[in-house]
Design a protein that fits this description.
The structure is a single chain. The protein is an alpha/beta fold. The chain has a single domain, classed as Glycoside hydrolase/deacetylase (TIM Barrel), CATH 3.20.20.370. Helix content is 40%, strand content 16%. It contains nine helices and ten strands. The strands form two sheets. Strands 2, 3, 4, 5, 6, 8, 9 and 10 form an eight-stranded parallel sheet that branches. Strand 3, helix 4 and strand 4 form a beta-alpha-beta unit. Helix 7 runs parallel beside helix 8. It is globular and about 45 Å long. The N and C termini lie far apart (41 Å). The structure holds zinc ion. The site of zinc ion (ZN) has 5 residues, from loops.
Length: 269
Amino acid sequence: MNSITALSGWMSPRNPQQPKRLTGLCASGSRYLARVVPTKPFRARNSRPIVSFTFDDVPNSALTNGARILDRHGIRGTFYVAPGTCGLQDEHWTVIDRGGVATLANSGHEVGCHTYSHVKVQTLTRSELARETKRCFESLRAICGSAPSKNFAYPFGNVSFPHKFQLDRQFTSCRSIYTGLNSGLIDLAMLRSIELYDRTSTEESINAVLDQAIATNAWVIFYTHDVAPGPSWIGCSPGHLEMAVKAVKARGIDCLAVDEALTAIGVRA
Ligand SMILES: [Zn+2]
């Protein structure tokens, strides 16, 4: 079976023998297609540059340190939660519990979807992925007491072309971990982002990103995980986050949660 046959077979609801997963070259080719082929193109119409601070998985420290720093500066963040992992101990951190998710929502932050069980979406069949997102929506609705955000972040940044196609029908936006700014003609199903890690970003690199955002009227989406002294390899220290926030504020750039930023670029909710 060539890759085109495999892809079309996976996407067809009439095919009773859809493969459980794409493998090997087919899988990497499909990830490449997902990255480069826009499935939800949109011409951004923001009048000013925008920055969003986003947090994946949401370790306890992203609430106790991360959200607290944003609160102090009057900024709403976007926190992508996989509710099935709430309260679980990971290699690097403990994930916030359901009460922590409610605290974020009650503090005015956006709580987005990150699947229910934090799974690589490419490993799921179409119906498994539908169940994951449905469960995520239902859990977040029960925890937060209101309709959850329709914004999604790909766990591990992993997605194939047909999975992306499926998710962009359910969500207003899907954030990737592919590096870049969002300006002009963007793909709402593959929003570009910038790591906010102590390991990979510096004050100089962050300033350069922000200056580029001003020059190109772009939307910058920072993302990180834990916010702790001595952070994990995919996290940042409180001082690093504070530095980035101050750099944004010093330039007078609007800090908006993803749902607000979508409105600012002209997407109807
Ligand atoms: Zn994640």
